[in-house]
Amino acid sequence: MMTPSNIFRKEIIETLRNRKLVAIKMVFPFLIVLSMLMGTPPLTATAGLITMLVVFIGVFGTGIGIIKEKTDGMFNRIIVTPLTPRRIILENLLAGVVIEFVQFSPILIAVIAIFSPSPEWIISLFLSMTAAVVTANVIGLIISSLSSSMGEVHLYSALSLFPVFATSGIFTPLKNSVQVYLAFFSPFAHLKQALLAVFGKPYIWAWHSIAAADLVMIAILLVLTLIITPRLVRVSI
Amino acid sequence: MTTIITENLTRLYQGGAGIKKINVEIRRGEVFGLIGPNGSGKSTLIRVLSTLLPPSEGFFKILGSNGTKNKDVRKKIGVLFEGVSHFDDLTGFENAWFFGRTYGMDSSGLKERIDFLFEWMGLAHYKDSKVRTYSYGMKRKLGITEAILHDPDILLLDEPSVGLDYTSKLRLYEYIEGLSKKGKTIVIATNDVMEAEHLCRRIAFVYKGQVIEIGSPDEFLSGLSGTEIIEIKIAEPMDVDYLRGINGIFAVTATDNIIHILSNAKNVLPDAIKEIVETGSRITDVKVKQPNLGDVFVRMTGEKIK
């Protein structure tokens, strides 16, 4: 039996313990995406929807999880243990990423099964999904450090995500070179473009450009997270 | 040997509350009490000493290490904050396991230690139940278990007996006395004066963020020898300032409908009763008591602890 010997394992156990919630978390996005894939909506909208779900679930999952621990005093108790702030944050981040990736696995498998993309696009899709999930979770961490209640998490998430969606071309196509240039720095844009490529729709960047950019982006995000760790674990009383 | 030393330790919140220029030295094997009313700064001092909050000014040393800079001191500290917070979807055993492991305890000894402490705390039957199903008192017991699990050299306890049943309180007191004999240092923030008198070798009265006096309970109580404590219960709350005019009364406080009088002269009771009755108030009960640390606090500040 798995024991909660560290924050990562504790997060996994807590998630698995609530079976009804796990089922909803797994089935709900899958059904939405599957209905779109099998139905008549344009595949560009489906790619945008999948990206949006990845972002929202990542940001809210991590942001709300941490703010709940902060408001009920649990985070304070963890901070005064010998665990280093970096370990606390990285284990929270890793748990959030793993849980969300597992949550989206059925969608990725369904997409690959239905559209049979080439191996290089499968790699690109997985990398862009990983980068998007990591980015969403890091945004969730940052938002939780700025917030003192669930309401603030919702507010800051909405305020920060809609500009991100707009510049990443999630809802609308990227029309000019400036938009394309800006979007290249967004892992969410990469995920949408990778999905468009897998769906057989027009896309902007080659698979190796997306893969390379995502690897760099994941590295940058991890370094950034380590740098801002003291701010992320700061107690606001 | 001094295990905790603070120098001008200050931590202020927005609005000015917090602690200001706290200077205390706490010795090895000592049970040290922080006594004061709610909001006096006791919990803030516990939070700073636990390294949760950095001081705004000043510093503190724990076992010779600078507590504001050397986070390694955390391994040597066990903390119980006020209130209850646990991972509600985990069992009591899993919660304790998590904290045991984060403090570096080996899996082999940890299970035995948890089993022993759960048995001792009366939680053995519930160790595999989710904490969500625990009562408030059980959650407090679990918090105490987690604080002492790794056998820390220094134990910081904020209101440790709140929510505990009588038997558990006695067990906790017994355990704290045992730890003290083993050379552990225990700091207790409480507004339970009987608890402080029973447990603490020395106490610090904390008032408006500052330590106003430090000493042993005996020293403080001997300062009140010859003092008579009178509690008069009245039907309706009333203004009691006029009682200060009675010869021999040096402190008067009122909480709801109980008037608390400190007097250093005999026979002030008839005069006080006469004055109260003349205002038209109805007296429902009168008690004359031995002074306790709460009365010492009233004498120092003119306010009651609770």
Describe the structure.
The complex is a heterodimer of chains A (about 240) and B (about 300). By secondary structure, chain A is an all-alpha fold. Chain A has one domain. Chain A is built from eleven helices and no strands. In chain A, helix 3 runs antiparallel to helix 5 (about 85-115) and helix 3 runs antiparallel to helix 9 (about 185-200). Chain A is globular and about 50 Å long. Chain A starts with 6 loop residues before the first helix and ends in a 5-residue tail after the last helix. The mean pLDDT of chain A is about 90. With about 300 residues, chain B is α/β, with parallel strands linked by helices. Chain B has a six-stranded mixed sheet, sandwiched between helices. Chain B contains nine helices and 15 strands. Helices cover about 30% and strands about 30% of the residues of chain B. In chain B, helix 2 runs parallel beside helix 4 (about 135-150). The interface of A and B includes residues 77, 78 and 79 of A.
Q: Span from first to last CA of chain A?
A: 37 Å
Shape type of chain B: globular
Low-confidence stretches of chain A: none
Which segments of chain B are poorly predicted (pLDDT under 50) over 5 or more consecutive residues? none
The average pLDDT value of chain B, as a whole number, equals 90
Order of helices and strands of chain B: EEEEHEEEHHHEHEHEEHEEEHEH
Helix content class of chain B: 25-40%
Strand content of chain B: 25-35%
User: Which sheet architecture does the biggest sheet of chain A show?
Assistant: none
Provide the residue-averaged pLDDT of chain A.
90
Radius of gyration of chain A: 18 Å
Largest sheet of chain B: 6 strands, mixed
What's the short version?
Chain A is mainly α. Chain A is 80% helix and 0% strand. Chain A has one domain (4-232).
SSE arrangement:
The complex is a heterodimer of chains A (237) and B (306).
Chain A: H1 7-17, H2 19-38, H3 43-71, H4 74-79, H5 85-115, H6 119-146, H7 150-168, H8 177-183, H9 187-199, H10 207-227, H11 229-232
Helix pairs in contact in A: 1-5, 2-3, 2-5, 3-5, 3-6, 3-7, 3-9, 5-6, 6-7, 6-9, 6-10, 7-9, 9-10
Chain B: E1 2-12, E2 18-22, E3 25-27, E4 31-35, H1 42-49, E5 57-62, E6 65-66, E7 77-80, H2 92-102, H3 107-121, H4 136-148, E8 154-158, H5 166-181, E9 185-190, H6 193-199, E10 202-207, E11 210-215, H7 217-222, E12 228-234, E13 249-255, E14 258-263, H8 269-278, E15 283-289, H9 293-301
Parallel strand pairs in B: 4-9, 4-10, 7-8, 8-9
Antiparallel strand pairs in B: 1-2, 1-3, 1-5, 5-6, 10-11, 12-14, 12-15, 13-14
